[in-house]
């Protein structure tokens, strides 16, 4: 998949991935800029290793405004004890750290959407350098990979874990089993149409067991959604045989997004009035939302109707909407 | 309360408040600026009048990132028919229109927090001019005033309507009755400590029946919260004898915020992990949230505990928190 | 008009207004800021004095994006010789120098619209300090005052000089005579409705002979419009007996703007399509411009029609228009 | 010219280019960003088709601050009827829509100057994606292409239509004939020196009949210049046999810009004083403009003189000038 | 000096100024804003009290880009033990905390220059509220006040402590004695010309013993300059009888700035070339610096010469200079 | 090293490099942008040639906030006379002119760090175009190249000149000899670890004699550091046989930075307290600096200790520090 003649990564880890024990450190990425000529970015990382065994790579903050993953992973990194694990856990709770620190989806440094920049490059933008380091240095160590997502500041999702439809059916089965072990209220088997540049694609092409999630949104977390993330991470480590104890089983419903009819886009700038909420069942033709022009009163709103039967699985979050924004996503249950 | 020798307002209404019928127009506020020397701001307004009778003033967008009120009021302005009313309804769905249009709490023009600038001034900033026009031209026409609020982008509330404790017990009773008619899931009788500059204070000092609300937050609305706002506005108009039909009664629970112990503030910058959600009951000493330092892993979070028994009535919304942010408000039920 | 107990101005002139000769210097205004703790603003000024006689104060750059005045005055300051004058000329070609330097109507320092801040204050914002210095130090020396305006980046005008209708009919007559001497293609006798804060008002209340202008617009100048300004300034100085030689007479047409019907405002955001140009005669009801919604094709534009017979005297300049912008001003000829 | 193995464009048209009738829709370009994770840009487009026949592609808003083209094309899109056409008209009135909406030459999203990014790329910046879609999806359908330009906010031009000197003399002849049919007051046969990345080059290399224009400038339009654009577009469609009726003939003067001596650049920052206006004839050595230092009075301006005999065909528009800005372009008539 | 009927301060201290012991806490200032509706600013404060005795108020960060004071005071706050003091020390190491946190002279919140806003106001901007709290709540407790300054990012000073010439000669003597005890390499007796709004003035008018400093500059500190600040603070506390032990005496040279001739201002924008360094002796007429125009080579620089004999006591720090910046200050030794 | 099929540079020199005499002119780089459609950047350049002989290329402003080089080179360009030279001197005092004019390390146009963009590209960003022009048009003319650096706004250095360890020992010797001739107080033989994109590497790969410097820092210059730069430039020209006269010899100390232990990075955001100053000798284990958390008092600082014996050769300059910033560099003397 990658050229072998790439330059070494400029990122340097202050932790030793081969050493037993629990280490909290950084990936240090040099970053020369107007306010620090010899500056760098310190990306927090935890490595916990207890002898031989499988390795799990747990990542949050791929997008910087999604919080269930970082909460679960900062918590796990601080609570994890050597006694309860076999093998290795690598925790990167805020993968695109500059974005996470700014509370924005993309990096304020280079506007990079990290999840469209894999496998990255050692000589590109800071976001590309992070992608490259993860791809060439961390992924080869991992057997199972969990990447946390939520809706961020502009979308809201029913909480689900997901695997992709894969060419390798055995790999796909393992991923599906991992999603089931995660135990989110909803589970999705996804068909990505535009998978170019996604972390998911890079991980799966390397043959790893991969789980991704969408656990809420709005740029916040709740006690409930954070709890799903914490339990899911622990369940996955147990499922992989790294964390001791049995998977804490939870009921899940499988959800599918079969066609373009699932997606509705706004055609005007205005104010969004939702007519159904997440999890509500809707019938084809039913109004699901309205966009109000805000520059005058007395004008009828644009009304958007469901193009299929389904359940509201995701929605535009901010009160204002721009033409072109995705305002609703419908899913269907098995 | 006000000097009588104030200059006339520079705002001009394109509607005639004395005319029968339904008019959709603007308050035009001159606003000379770099990108329009002879520019102005057009604030949408609707006036519906059907003969003599009481006048209701309904306002939204006092803070520009709160959406239940504007949704209910754009909707009401567009649906209202003359046949169903007696008297007059003045609808100002986006009172601080520049803030509303920008989707921000305060005005991008002058950073004005409109709800701290009443009674305003005809020669001040644009926000002060709006406050002044509402105070001197609209309020004198009104008998009952409903001002919609929600938590905005940075707070989230249990949905409630509220009245203030007032010196005039008859006025207070009428306000409490209006809150009950509104019919939100929760109702609050508030004691404002710092009421200087609030619209509420100006309205109440003029002897009007006044209802305010907090109907959700996060800078969004849901079908559910928008429904509470719509029903509440209609109920209040019915209660006031302006809209025909009976009040649609709904159960409400009364909530009190009796002391400073209700409020918890963060003492660090970091990431918020909520441990309880809105509506959850908590006991004194129970952990309600944690703030994680985000610059490294392996460090224990700051934990915040309840200073009293109560119900979580409001919370900090964004995933990141700054030292000094209010992270939780507890209320007690009767 | 002013309190006598104001603090001294913090501005200091590097020129001596009482000395004979031609001096080029500055008004130095201290301005402490993040990028210069002990910084100041240097406002260019020229004083030319040749013995006793009347004093003219010539100002440009009251708004920072209007160029006919500054061109005429930088040119005059550089060409003027002592031999050709009697008395004194004070030239302030870029009165709101921070705005002029930025090419913006208002000051980038404090967003001050200088022509709404007179008579100013010695302890206010930098814009207020400039107004105060001009009011308390320069105006008392002047007998005749010429303040140059044009439309700036957002308006375009037929080129005219103007005087105001004044209570003191003798003063008004002198001003009208000065306007006629200026010799612009158009001349206007104005009735300001909102004169609060204008330089004009401050000057006229001090009993001075005052001429103002609008000589074009768009944030540019042409050889033609700059020529009108240069000739007008010289003519006024000759008319005042300060510059030797006879007034260079030019035909002028008198224009009036008698009512609110002269002004048309846009009610939508969009793209402006003018249907008549400056100087064109229009009839009541004739379409004069259209505003196109730009977010989709196939939608009819908003059409604006003349509310009276007249001549197009001013128009909105930028291709895009915002709701509330003044898009056309009609005038009537005698 | 292009690799055949490019990825499909991410842009999707909501109109069917093969269907008869008039459709108003959008090119929807996905654009994920901090304020809309699943956002997109909707570029307005109109397709009018009446059976078989030639296809014209009419584009405006290649640069976002040029208005004659968008006015003519929004107007045409709204007025065109099926009855009056044979074949197909594709109207893209605001090609670089993000720039057009912002009123800026380049895109506020990626600072892209669209007219230097052709033939574009499906995996580049948003501006590159637009260029790619036009190149690979719209141009192959077209026989004749008209791309509207004006001077934008910083330049002003004599109104002209233009064709390029081309290697294929038959193609060149057809382009010249199309320019003549357009019927602008001035016509130009251009020799581009730096044609890399221009839309013009891409169109011409595909063998199409191509007309470009410069119809004014300053970031505005007049009734007169908009009229030239409207008439020119209709004339070209008639000339191509798509629109019924005869070409409305207008006199035009042919203008040439034969050498580098046509161009004058400022060597200082300062204020521009034009000494000649558009259309004025100048002699070699004649002063055509002056740049005044603005930080002090009494200093002589930099004077710029004509390097050849000619007519002032274009000029720097803003009142302020920076070192390196082109301040004047001379042309010669046949 | 102040009205007694001011509203109570909105600031609340989390420390008890009357309690014995060492407390580290905050002044909490409510600050509602777009990114935190119920936010506040937490200004760090330390109070150390050991029984009865005098009170010292030590402040740093009056300007936010000056570091000797904050270093000395964070250090003192962390090291101070109860055993070594008698009475009370109040330490406010970053008085204008928003400015200090941003590393800017003025507050990023309101652009307030704190040292021109005393005595402040409880209902003004955040900077004014801080000034008011210090004036009305902290100053009345203090007997001796030390306010640290340095040159900040744009000025550099010889390190000195200073007292003002005061009407009350006994107070002046006490201040001079305190300056001597501080023990900086240089000492200055200052005559402020424009003392309006300064903290110094407010403190002195309350009759306190007051010491101010300028201990370096450039927006940095050195081991040497930080050492001067640490030793000076300890010396002053010893001198006041609060800290045990004897004053650590150091030689100091007294410096005077007797007239306007001490100050030199740049008259052009350009690049500064210093010809003498801090502490160098200069003679009247000697070149002390040059400002180079940077837009072209081959042009002679503006040369600035000393207007008097003296020692270079302060200088403009950044490499670039703007017209109006103070570039050099000369002092004379006794 | 470079492809021969690169497009010609868009930069044009207004000077003739082959002509005898002293010429002051520009490199004109076309730069189309929103505020000047046909704008360009004028980079000042001086060429002095007196017959045949070697050519020196002297560059400053590679980083825009470093001043010793520009001061020495603007001065040299203005003072140099033909009589005193043999051969040619090309002086580019502000190579990344947009950055220099803004006073920032990187270009405000494209955020380009010029010293990481060599050999550049004729079709890239403006910074890349500058690099390309210097590489392909200026370097081939040069025999000796001097590129001035200092620490800029965020670093401070002991003043040194430096050469790199090179594969070609003869070239290395010549560079070392040139460094010695420069005569800075300190001299360094550097081993760059990450030399990709540096001007140094491009120059050296072309076989030129190359000297670089670090002559101070903080975004300022002193009379002393500017003097080192002026004398060094003259010495190098004398050493190369271009400037008449003998090298003015000065003692220098050779400094080495042998390992990663030389560098210390901050691990927290906070305020820097230096414990040693530039030039101070330190022992392994000795505290050299402390970083104070600034959000509260009473917390111990992070202390950084020397990892080796050495001399403090460079340090972080601003008072505030971010995690990841380099705070100290130690060197060892021979």
TrEMBL record, chains A, B, C, D, E, F:
Residues 52-239 form the Succinylglutamate desuccinylase/Aspartoacylase catalytic domain. GO terms for molecular function: hydrolase activity, acting on carbon-nitrogen (but not peptide) bonds, in linear amides; hydrolase activity, acting on ester bonds; metal ion binding. Its cofactor is Zn(2+). InterPro entries: AstE_AspA_cat, DoeB, N-alpha-Ac-DABA-like, N-alpha-Ac-DABA_deacetylase. Keywords: Hydrolase, Metal-binding, Zinc. The keyword Hydrolase applies. It holds the Pfam family AstE_AspA_cat. PANTHER family: BLL3975 PROTEIN. This is Succinylglutamate desuccinylase/aspartoacylase.
